[in-house]
């Protein structure tokens, strides 16, 4: 297996699943509601929603860097504002994360392996470090999301016996 295929495999394991450490980004976000995502159970910590936007921002930045663009994120780009906090907005956030990840995965899969030791475009870090960095970044934040999920109450589900007016 080529080095770029091994790296692409690690990127997919970190995002999709099958990483030996535990849940991937997608797995840890599975079933999270907008209410849970916007919740701030730990003082001075980011919410799941903010972290999700942050992951997407850096996956996009690395994709653009690998394509030769010089990218330095501003504070507002690094931690994008949430905006609306509806279920539809959360679904759109997750869909955007998925689209961005697919674009990054395709860029990595097509990346010229002979260029891994060079900085892409005018960027400072070599491509190898950029790609492994985004993988590590995904996993770091997946761990944060896992902790936040434990601190956020699960959405209340009403059964027929606990629904108002039943009984």
TrEMBL record:
Database matches in Pfam families: DinB_2
Chain ranges of the DinB-like domain: 25-145
The protein's name in its UniProt record: DinB family protein
Organism whose genome encodes this protein: Eiseniibacteriota bacterium
